[in-house]
Design brief:
Strand order of the largest sheet: 1-2-3-4
Largest sheet: 4 strands, antiparallel
Number of helices: 1
Helix content: 10-25%
Radius of gyration: 13 Å
Oligomer: single chain
Number of strands: 4
Strand content: 25-35%
Length: 72
């Protein structure tokens, strides 16, 4: 399940009780952020730099990307 002591996976509150969302592992490790699909937790996570992840989050928060079908 990709779990290691001292780390936690966090799921967006937008997903509610469903498993249709991404999960982020915290804290970041050596400048890397791990992202996984909440529907398939046994699949290896996507790993990117924490800097690139934060840049992506900022751009989505600023609505620089078109909204998808969910409208969020």
């Amino acid at each position: 399940m990709n779990d290691e002591p001292g780390y936690r996976w966090h799921k967006s509150t937008y997903s509610g009780e469903t498993n249709g969302c991404l999960e982020i592992r915290t804290p970041p490790q050596r400048g890397r952020t791990r992202i996984r699909d909440s529907k398939d937790r046994f699949r290896p996570p996507l790993i990117c730099t924490t800097e690139s992840w934060m840049s992506f989050v900022r751009s989505v928060s600023a609505q620089e990307w078109p909204q998808g079908p969910a409208g969020r």
